[in-house]
């Protein structure tokens, strides 16, 4: 096998894999946004919610957790909290301890894990 044949056997599958990864829709999947100081994970465009929410955004969840426990918000991810939609907030306390808080988006309650 010469160099050109080897190149075709290696590059062509990589191009196909990259094309498939870019072209497939991501409805209903989560995606993460990096704001530099924190990352926020959102449900994808296909995700549906039928419950009325007290907390409607990752920003509201992070500010509620920070207001209750203090510290610096490191990351926010959407998650299930007691069977309800909610958020998991990763915080760094003033004394250097990393901990998680869960925010129930339906009730608005915040608890430390």
From TrEMBL:
Region entry Disordered, spans: 39-69
Domain of life: Bacteria
UniProt-listed InterPro entries: PepSY
Domain PepSY intervals: 57-110
Pfam families associated with the record: PepSY
Low complexity biased stretches: 59-68
Name of this chain's protein: PepSY domain-containing protein
């Amino acid at each position: 096998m010469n160099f050109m044949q080897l190149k075709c056997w290696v590059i062509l599958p990589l191009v196909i894999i990259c094309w498939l990864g870019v072209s497939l829709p991501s409805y209903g999947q989560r995606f993460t946004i990096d704001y530099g100081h924190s990352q926020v994970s959102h449900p994808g465009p296909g995700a549906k919610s039928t419950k009325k929410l007290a907390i409607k955004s990752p920003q509201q969840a992070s500010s509620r957790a920070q207001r209750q426990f203090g510290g610096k918000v490191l990351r926010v991810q959407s998650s299930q909290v007691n069977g309800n939609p909610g958020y998991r907030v990763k915080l760094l306390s003033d004394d250097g301890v990393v901990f998680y808080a869960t925010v129930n988006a339906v009730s608005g309650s915040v608890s430390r894990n």
